[in-house]
Structures are given as structure tokens and as C-alpha cells.
Amino acid sequence: MPTSIVEITTHTHFPIKLTSTNFPVWRKQVLSTLIGLDLDQYVDGKTKPPLKTLEGKENPAYNLWYRQDQILLGALLGSCSDTIQPIVSSAETAHQVFKCLTDSYASVSRSRIISLKSKLAKNPKGAKPMAEFLHEMKGIADELALAQAPIDDEDLIVHILTQLRDDYKHITAAFKVRDTPLTFSDLFAKLIDYERSLQETQPAPNIATVNQTQKQPSRYTGRTGYDSRNHTRSNNFGPRDNKSRTHNSGSNYNSRGFLTTQYYIHTHTPILNF
Question: Which residue ranges does the record annotate as region Disordered (predicted)?
Fold first, then answer.
């Protein structure tokens, strides 16, 4: 226990305000800060306060303890949101505040743990980018750790692999037969690389070639610039005549005397054949 007063402020030491849904992270914040300042005995209840008097006189040790406790009490109250403060408004010591909040939100935390575990098991990747999916899964695992229900890397990896799409089945099978353990960091890097490989091997779409077949009209002027008046008219639509009817614009006649027109759509991708 410190032999001098340690100044504590809500803004500096407890910036995360307690709400009805973030008790695990708030609790972690408080305990880690107080352990670092050697003040955790004020809230955990393991150390009793000194006697108020010794041989009928004021005990200096108690005065020091009381002053430090009141500073800590004020900081804890300030770290509670407006809806939480009425619950602990009657507390007289830092330990009473911490115990009251723990008792009030322990059941909420257990419910939160169940919800997080369920989400971890039912969070399919779908069309999300791999990095986004992996960050989501790691975030859930981190929340479980804050709620005092940590999950190890092996279990996290199992949850991740079982929720990938079928196009990841080959790398998933390779991971499952590994003899050496796989860490989340290793899995992250390998899955990101595999996703990049899948994207590179996918066939790129082509420029669209649109085939339109229609019977030869008496007069046609279209996107190809064809005008029937500029071509030799003939009632014989045999194969021999069709050869002479080939147009540089991309139009030609088939054996039945139909005009086939191709439109070339210019894009930044290879040609697509419709």
C-alpha cells in the first residue's frame, strides 16, 4: 500500500465510462490501472482498512487510507454513465462501488458471454473480404477474453475454418492435417495470400460481342453504318453472294440471307462473348 496519496482522475485513469453493455472492458480498465498503481486492494476487498484509532488516538495510517479511498471512490463514480450512477450513489467506499457493480452486472456478463460464443460459431465469411472477416472473429475472441471467458488460438482457428466458403476447402484441408500448431497470426497471413491467389486466377470478363441476327431489310442504316443502297441488290441469297456481302463494319450475311451485326463494346477488360 502506498505511503503517500496517489492522485487519480476519471479522465486520465478511467476514460472508458461504464454502460449497461461494457462491464467486462470497464472492469479490466479499473483493475489494470489500480494494479499498476498498487491500489487494487482498495477495490478487491482482500485487505481490510486500518483501525481508525490506536490507543485512543487517531491512526495516521487510517487517515491516509481513507483519503486515498475517497479519491478512488470519486474517480469510480465519475467513470459510470448517468444511468449507472444511481445504482452506486449510496456507496461509501471504493470497494462498495466495485462490489455493487460486479454483483449487478455479473449476470449480464454471463449472458454476453453466451451471445459472443454463439456469434463466434455462426459468423460465416460470405462475401466479406478476408481481412474484415478475420478481424471480426478476432474481435469476438478479444471480447470473450475481457469477459473472463478466453478462447485459445486453436479453437478460434477451428471456428474460422468451418465458416469459409467452398473455394477455400483446399487450404482448409491442408490446415487440418498439419502436425504443428497454427497461430492466428500465421492463419491471417496465409488466408490473405490465398484470397489474393483466388482473385488472380479467376478469369477476367471479356469485351462483349453482341450478335444480332435479323432478316435483310430493303433499307438499313444502323450503328455499323450499313446502307443497303450502297450494296448490289440481288434476289439470289445463295452462299456465293453472301461472300460478297461481307461488310468491313462487322456486318455479314448468313446462308439464309439474314444480316448478322456485331457490336464491339470497348471496356478495360478482355472480350466477353454473349
Answer: 203-254
Look at residues 177, 201, 225 and tell me which one is the last residue of a structural domain: 201
Say whether both 96 and 14 belong to one domain.
Answer: yes
Does residue 173 sit within a domain?
Answer: yes
Reduced to 3 states, what is the DSSP secondary structure of residue 157?
A: helix
**Which value, in Å, is the radius of gyration of the alpha carbons in the chain?**
37
Number of domains in the chain: 2
Mode of pairing for the β-strands spanning 272-273 and 208-215 = parallel
Look at residues 201, 231, 204 and name the one whose alpha carbon lies nearest to residue 216: 231
Per-residue pLDDT of the chain (274 residues; tens, 9 = 90+): 677 899 999 999 999 999 988 898 999 999 999 999 999 999 998 888 999 999 889 999 999 999 999 999 999 999 999 999 999 999 999 999 999 999 888 777 788 889 999 999 999 999 999 999 999 999 999 989 888 889 999 999 999 999 999 989 999 899 888 888 889 999 999 999 999 998 888 765 554 544 444 445 545 444 444 444 444 444 444 444 444 444 444 445 455 554 444 433 343 333 323 2
Q: Is residue 54 part of a domain?
A: yes
**Structural domain harbouring 31:** 10-109
Q: Residue 211: enclosing H or E segment and its boundaries?
A: strand 208-215
- Please identify, among 201, 227, 257, the residue that sits at the C-terminal boundary of a domain: 201
